């Protein structure tokens, strides 16, 4: 997962809602400095921060991080052990 995709996702979602970084910070309990750092890619959010941001935007943490679980690779690894 690249920092750029998380950075753009947070920024894009915030701008789409028409809220400021300060408003997002206030709503999530995360400092505005941290929100700015996340959006600029200088800081990766903690799990708690990611959960708060995702919840605010009505996303799952997976959606926030654009994570795609590859179920086939897990099955292949399980089959290899037999």
Structural account:
The structure is a single chain. The chain is mostly helical and 82 residues long. It is 68% helix and 0% strand. The protein has a single domain (3-70), classed as lambda repressor-like DNA-binding domains (434 Repressor (Amino-terminal Domain)). It has helices at residues 3-17, 21-28, 32-39, 47-56, 61-65, 71-80. It is globular, with a radius of gyration of 16 Å.
Task: Give a topology summary.
Blueprint: H1 3-17, H2 21-28, H3 32-39, H4 47-56, H5 61-65, H6 71-80
Helix pairs in contact: 2-3
Pfam family, one: HTH_3
Keywords: DNA-binding
InterPro entries: Cro/C1-type_HTH, Lambda_DNA-bd_dom_sf
CATH architecture: Orthogonal Bundle
Low-confidence parts: none
Helix content: 55-70%
Mean pLDDT: 84
Q: Roughly how many Å apart are the termini?
A: 31 Å
Cα-based radius of gyration, to the nearest Å: 16 Å
What is the domain total for the residues? 1
Strand segment tally: 0
Largest sheet: none
CATH superfamily: lambda repressor-like DNA-binding domains
CATH topology: 434 Repressor (Amino-terminal Domain)
Order of helices and strands: HHHHHH
Structural class: mainly alpha
* Percent of sequence in beta strands: under 5%
Number of discrete helical segments: 6
Shape type: globular
CATH class: Mainly Alpha
Domain HTH cro/C1-type: 10-64
Protein name: HTH cro/C1-type domain-containing protein
Pfam family, one: HTH_3
Organism: Acetivibrio ethanolgignens
